Amino acid sequence: MEEKEISQAVISRLPRYFRYLSELKYAGIERVSSQELSDIMKVTASQIRQDFNNFGGFGQQGYGYNVEFLHNEIGKILGLDRTHHLIIIGAGNLGQALANYVNFERRGFLFRGLFDNNPDLHGKKIRGIEVQPMESMEMFVKDNDIDIAVLTIPKTEAVTVAEQLVNYGIKGIWNFAHVDLNVPENIQVENVHLSDSLMKLSYNISRFELDNTK
Amino acid sequence: MEEKEISQAVISRLPRYFRYLSELKYAGIERVSSQELSDIMKVTASQIRQDFNNFGGFGQQGYGYNVEFLHNEIGKILGLDRTHHLIIIGAGNLGQALANYVNFERRGFLFRGLFDNNPDLHGKKIRGIEVQPMESMEMFVKDNDIDIAVLTIPKTEAVTVAEQLVNYGIKGIWNFAHVDLNVPENIQVENVHLSDSLMKLSYNISRFELDNTK
DNA sequence: TAGATTGTTAATCGATTAACAATC
DNA sequence: TAGATTGTTAATCGATTAACAATC
């Protein structure tokens, strides 16, 4: 069967659909039309239908979409029906914060290991998991079926550590280091560049003020 | 003078240009052509020229772009030539991690206050700044010329706190809460939805494996 | 059956890329 | 002046929106 490639623009919207559907489901709402979703989510009904139809028909003419079914299907598309094992590289403030983030577990992202170069941190426990030296990483990844690595280390180290992780068999990298990683295309990278995000905010604040002085 | 609206697609690319130009500048490189930038950044030279020309001509035919000048101009566009005063609402792990993030200061984002509902945290100091109760927020924002609020509180509180902050005169919100805020359009919101990002990574990992079993 | 709403095709809009004249 | 490379217009590509036939 020929699968058409789904654009990243569509993918980016899926988690937001998923979130709103969770809420509707939680509120006990059984069905929803693209028009109703459009009203609460502030996107066009047309886009909603197009997006869903990338993955096959989830709705029914004259009825709309069953909330629970749709929620479940989008979850499956996002791979939330499976379990991911993740390690965090870099036990600084951000690494520890993410390690403590219990909500990820709920969606199947299981925090399994935490690594850092700093010997002072070794043995320190976060949510029951000890910080280990970087040297233990290879063995740990291989022994524990780790598929996602979270990089919260300085950019100077990030590129080489990423390459190592790829060699150890990792499948995806959640990259918080402020640098572009260079990995084979079979490895998925999702960047969270916080300072980029802050700069965008800064731009929009400045631009808005400029617009208003005209 | 008529200013054409710049698309957010262009804005999103500016911080990355800025980053690469910082590196070139730091490496002592004086000039760069759109083609050279294209090679290292893996975007088309055409896009680079189009992007820059949204803001007027920064280059010179036959020569290319002066790295330092271009770096500086993009910094100005991003509003990095001014100072922002920010407060963080929510002194949990993530809030503390961001408060400790010294790099933002370098770009003119000055961390000024930290607020939390939890009395156990009140008085605790992060980088010399005491956690204050939420009740002190209003006065503090007004007295200290705060223009950016960072929301690292649970989504249940985020919407109302955002509304309060808007009333206190904040200009921009950096929102880490997993909810869409509802603020007037003169208030800039930049969302960092970590779990959305993780879901995208999850999708891409799943999708890649699916593609390979075909 | 009549009404509602999807799935899907067609039209539009916007963003990216290509091409080249302008000019340093 | 000749060569290089921008700035900018035109062409293409892709994503969004509109429209409506299919169908529950």
Automatic annotation (TrEMBL), chains A, B:
Residues 79-180 form the CoA-binding domain. NAD(+) binds at residues 90-95. Residues 16-55 bind DNA. It holds the Pfam family Put_DNA-bind_N. The keyword Repressor applies. Gene3D superfamilies: NAD(P)-binding Rossmann-like Domain, Winged helix-like DNA-binding domain superfamily/Winged helix DNA-binding domain. Keywords: Cytoplasm, DNA-binding, NAD, Repressor, Transcription, Transcription regulation. It is found in: Cytoplasm. Homodimer. Belongs to the transcriptional regulatory Rex family. Modulates transcription in response to changes in cellular NADH/NAD(+) redox state. This is Redox-sensing transcriptional repressor Rex. It comes from Kineothrix sedimenti.
